[in-house]
């Protein structure tokens, strides 16, 4: 399940189609072969480079509002044949960013200059993101013609932003190297522009401010930016690419006084509270009857909250909408109840209204998912959050975050993708509060697998066991199993349980507590594993590490530059009981192996209990973002864990 991301398409525009203004004459003056040689020497091994990556913004006061005109220009030089992958491009058009002019062309080397080949075939379509039912964002796509090494693909386009509160960041870097990146902002002197910069440490950014008449121009530029890391499981680009977020802090009003726009959290909340102030206060009689029925027999206020929360999860289908201001304004609770579907803000408002009917105070809450790295204290603009939930204050300062879009999320746990974030609570029409969302410890997401094994006469194992999952692992697997037909479910369960080798067969299984949130999702199973046990003369060797999580998870610390993202902390406990084969004694039991680190650790121990050998294995992961300075210790744990995985139990035939 993905949270409703109001800015996903626009961010893709920033990272996937560079935003530029005007190429300096020196770039055009250079001969094509000379320019290619210079860029290949400066950025060795790269397929392409942006010669210029620019945005020129002009702010204009129109009555009580400010309109922003953004002129973009991009100029990419292609350095080898594989750069043809960059021949396709697009720009986005929506309620908040309206494309007015677009001109794309290829400059093909022709001797000491270039021949221009214009793009003539543009295609428009609605750009629907994964997990979103409707989105008013449209894309205009095209393919540059004649893209070969030495060619340059150039795009100029102009975008009108009718509301300056919904502007997008400027990224100095892109997905290929950038020779020159530049942002200019020209505004009337009575329009106060503010900005925040992120991840610019070690980067030389040139800044200038020039006043001319009644306007002021701000300029930021940077040169020779390398291409970003391309590591798997890395964070979103906003976590590491250098960028600048600009916003309007004050504008003049009709009476000549300054009007605050986005100066801090109070101003941001003023914007947000305006979105919810016009919700219909009229109560739905049908919804009232539902709430009254849920309250019957509830012994505590918390039990009432839990019942309401689970009712919304079970009865309202999450369907995301992105339609202009409809991406920010919730629909009335009665309407959502009647239609039985809604997006995150609709479900949040419905939950809040049902709790109000039950006489319980709760708060509409704005929050950013972990895709966004910002905190309200450092950036108070609509770009800091992309999701809405409801918050219940169980006792003073003790908050329960209710995200009904997450169908299987148990009461008392925040959705995994908002752990560690800040939440903006709507206390009343004028007052708000920022509170932290806790990170759930590994003990809240346990996985337990207990199985009993016997050797068969053909060198294999037969076993039966029970896999139990709680917390986030249960949520993840419940979503995966939800709606599968019998054939699909059987394949999925086999893949989930698979262990030992590729001769693993599930003979029987059953799934229980899929929809019971307070009990572990349980899969009881029976299986066969062929050709696994090794026999040599009068000895039998059995490796009880049938599953070996993280065995191949060493990090190349010399090459990887980005942190590694993990969805949630978890602990995995496996208990494997192997019956001692008749006529054999235990020759060797491996010693206890253990290594514990704050973010990763394990313990494996063996003991004999009657006619059984019991292996207890615990492996835990306890991080959300693994930093590069932690890679060495991570690898040390993996090495020791692999040594433990190689240990075998040895049985020896009794002498007659």
TrEMBL record:
Keywords: Signal
Domain Transglutaminase-like residues, every copy: 290-362
Coiled-coil ranges (or none): none
Top-level taxon of origin: Bacteria
A Pfam match: Transglut_core
Database matches in Gene3D superfamilies: 2.60.120.1130, 2.60.40.3140, 3.10.620.30
InterPro entries in the record: DUF3857, Papain-like_cys_pep_sf, Transglutaminase-like
Keyword Signal: yes
Annotated signal peptide: 1-29
Domain DUF3857: 92-228
Protein's recorded name: DUF3857 domain-containing protein
């Amino acid at each position: 399940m993905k949270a409703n991301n109001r800015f996903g398409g626009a961010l893709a525009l920033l990272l996937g189609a560079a935003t530029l203004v005007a190429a300096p004459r020196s770039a055009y003056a250079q001969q094509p072969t000379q320019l290619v040689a210079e860029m290949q020497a400066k950025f060795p091994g790269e397929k392409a480079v942006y010669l210029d990556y620019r945005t020129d913004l002009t702010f204009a006061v129109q009555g009580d509002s400010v309109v922003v005109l953004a002129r973009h220009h991009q100029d990419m030089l292609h350095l080898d044949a594989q750069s043809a992958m960059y021949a396709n491009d697009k720009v986005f058009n929506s309620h908040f960013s309206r494309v007015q002019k677009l001109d794309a062309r290829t400059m093909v080397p022709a001797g000491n200059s270039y021949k221009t080949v214009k793009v003539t075939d543009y295609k428009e379509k609605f750009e629907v993101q994964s997990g979103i039912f409707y989105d008013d964002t449209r894309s205009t796509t095209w393919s540059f013609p004649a893209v070969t090494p030495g060619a340059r693909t150039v795009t100029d386009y102009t975008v009108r932003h009718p509301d300056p509160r919904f502007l997008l960041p400027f990224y100095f870097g892109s997905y290929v190297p950038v020779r020159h990146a530049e942002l200019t902002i020209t505004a009337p002197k009575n329009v106060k522009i503010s900005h925040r910069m992120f991840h610019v440490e070690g980067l030389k950014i040139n800044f200038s401010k020039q006043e001319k008449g009644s306007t002021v121009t701000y300029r930021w530029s940077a040169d020779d930016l390398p291409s970003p890391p391309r590591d798997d499981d890395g964070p979103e680009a906003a976590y590491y690419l250098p960028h600048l977020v600009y916003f309007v802090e004050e504008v003049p009003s009709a009476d000549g006084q300054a009007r605050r726009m986005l100066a801090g959290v109070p101003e941001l909340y003023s914007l947000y509270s305006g979105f919810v102030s016009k919700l219909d206060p009229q109560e739905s009689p049908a919804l009232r009857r539902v709430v009254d029925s849920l309250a019957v027999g509830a012994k505590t206020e918390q039990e009432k909250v839990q019942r309401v929360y689970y009712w919304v999860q079970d009865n309202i289908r999450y369907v995301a909408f992105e339609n202009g201001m409809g991406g920010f304004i919730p629909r009335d609770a009665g309407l959502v109840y009647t239609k039985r579907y809604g997006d995150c803000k609709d479900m949040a408002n419905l939950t809040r209204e049902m709790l109000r009917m039950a006489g319980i105070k709760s708060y509409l809450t704005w929050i950013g998912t972990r895709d966004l790295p910002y905190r309200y204290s450092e950036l108070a603009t609509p770009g800091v959050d992309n999701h809405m939930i409801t918050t219940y204050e169980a006792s003073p300062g003790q908050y329960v975050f209710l995200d009904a879009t997450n169908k299987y999320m148990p009461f008392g746990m925040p959705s995994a993708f908002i752990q560690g974030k800040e939440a903006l609570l709507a206390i009343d029409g004028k007052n708000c509060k920022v509170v932290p969302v806790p990170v759930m410890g590994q003990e809240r997401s346990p996985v337990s697998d207990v199985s009993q094994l016997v050797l068969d006469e053909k060198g294999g194992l037969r076993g039966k066991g029970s896999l139990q999952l709680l917390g986030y692992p249960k949520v993840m697997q419940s979503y995966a199993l939800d709606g599968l037909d019998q054939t699909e479910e059987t394949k999925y369960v086999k893949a989930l349980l698979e262990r030992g080798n590729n001769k693993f067969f599930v003979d029987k299984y059953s799934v229980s507590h899929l929809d019971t949130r307070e009990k572990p999702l349980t899969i009881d199973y029976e299986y066969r594993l062929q050709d696994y046990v090794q026999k040599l003369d009068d000895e039998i060797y059995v490796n009880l590490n049938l599953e070996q999580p993280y065995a191949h998870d060493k990090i190349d610390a010399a090459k990887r530059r980005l942190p590694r993202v993990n969805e949630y902390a978890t602990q995995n406990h496996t208990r494997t009981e192997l019956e001692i084969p008749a006529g054999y004694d235990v020759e060797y039991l491996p010693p206890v192996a253990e290594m514990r680190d704050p973010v990763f650790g394990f313990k494996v121990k063996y003991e004999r209990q009657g006619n059984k050998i019991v292996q207890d294995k615990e492996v835990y992961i306890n991080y959300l973002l693994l930093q590069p300075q932690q890679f060495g210790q991570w690898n040390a744990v993996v090495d020791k864990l692999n040594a433990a995985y190689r240990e075998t139990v040895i049985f020896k035939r009794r002498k007659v």
